[in-house]
Backbone:
């Protein structure tokens, strides 16, 4: 899995730039605010046309531009395909693969990537939303149908939230409340199964990585936590649906009183423990970073097991946040696939990895 070439037009601070990447390590250097992360963002967009930095396509379009384009040659499984993403103000994004129009979700079969940014180092200590993003972004790439479920769930959640917020002023809105609750329950039943399966695989992959990382001093455990009435996350979807409905029914009056959606998988979490103790509550900063690194490297291994080749690994200025020992552990683990590393200075990374160096200066790559 690799990006052979990418051409950017009107994307962020890139007017017209084309770059051909090496199949192994690519080191992207330059001062802050020059466009290094923008380049990684463009590569990540090839996985599903969704940014890891913004929800709004308009923010991807450069100043004084009406549209932005990403054109890339991607090699997957020995097959080269050309992917084009077009973002236009006031219009839906357009996705084509080999000149044929596709949906954003269909990119999951074309390109996969694992991103590791400085924010991910705080994955353990942050709130549940950060860990849900980890699950959702990975599953969307591995299972194209999940992206549609997630989009449906978010729309239903927004509509239900609006009803709960406004029903006192417009009591007629309550007529649709149960319909939206039922839709959420049906989406939840299928998404819970996806999330539970992914976390089980993530736990199995992360444990040996962390054991190696910590010198066998720590055992990393991951578990999936969802709606409390769900007794078996691997049960048939219909059984999970009924249990989610029971939770909704028990909280219906509380939701009406609070004017907010209090039950659902938008509250799910990934519980992370070290030697049986909550990492979020008790891990030191060093332990939390080591655990986060183990989880992200495990995500890469899952993609490898699923597709037969490593995903593109995107390290966005993360090495500067790590001490020397953790840097070496990561650099020793990135072999076998294409990696893009951004940094403010080369810092001998190219020498340590044998990577090719690109310099970004005010939206120009050399």
Residues:
């Amino acid at each position: 899995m690799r990006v052979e070439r990418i051409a950017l037009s009107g994307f962020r601070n890139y007017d017209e730039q084309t770059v051909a990447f090496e199949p192994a390590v690519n080191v992207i250097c330059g001062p802050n605010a020059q466009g290094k992360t923008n380049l990684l963002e463009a590569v990540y967009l090839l996985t599903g046309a969704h940014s890891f930095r913004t929800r709004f396509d308009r923010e991807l379009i450069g100043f004084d531009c009406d549209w932005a384009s990403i054109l890339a040659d991607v090699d997957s499984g020995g097959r080269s395909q050309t992917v084009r993403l077009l973002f236009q103000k006031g219009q839906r994004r357009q996705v084509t693969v080999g000149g044929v129009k596709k949906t954003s979700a269909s990119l999951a079969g074309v390109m996969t990537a694992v991103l590791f940014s400085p924010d991910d180092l705080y994955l353990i200590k942050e709130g549940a939303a950060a860990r849900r993003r980890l699950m959702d972004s990975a599953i969307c790439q591995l299972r194209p149908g999940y992206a549609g479920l997630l989009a449906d769930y978010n729309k239903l959640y927004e509509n239900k939230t609006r009803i709960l917020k406004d029903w006192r002023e417009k009591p007629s809105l309550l007529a649709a409340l149960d319909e939206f609750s039922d839709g959420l329950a049906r989406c939840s039943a299928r998404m819970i199964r996806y999330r539970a399966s992914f976390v089980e695989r993530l736990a199995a992959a992360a444990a040996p990585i962390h054991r190696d990382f910590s010198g066998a001093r720590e055992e990393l455990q991951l578990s999936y936590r969802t709606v409390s009435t769900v007794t078996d996350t691997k049960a048939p979807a219909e059984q999970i649906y009924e249990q989610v409905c029971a939770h909704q029914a028990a909280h219906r009056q509380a939701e009406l009183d609070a004017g907010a959606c209090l039950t659902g998988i938008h509250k799910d979490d990934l519980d992370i423990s070290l030697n049986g103790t909550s990492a979020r509550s008790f891990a030191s900063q060093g332990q939390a970073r080591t655990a986060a690194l183990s989880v992200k490297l495990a995500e890469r291994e899952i993609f490898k097991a699923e597709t037969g080749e490593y995903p593109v690994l995107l390290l966005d200025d993360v090495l500067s946040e790590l001490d020397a020992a953790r840097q070496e552990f990561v650099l020793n683990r990135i072999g076998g696939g294409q990696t893009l590393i951004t940094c403010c200075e080369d810092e001998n990374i190219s020498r340590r990895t044998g990577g090719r160096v690109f310099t970004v200066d005010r939206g120009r790559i050399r």
The first strand starts at residue 2 and ends at 11. The chain has nine helices and 15 strands. The chain has a mean pLDDT of 93.
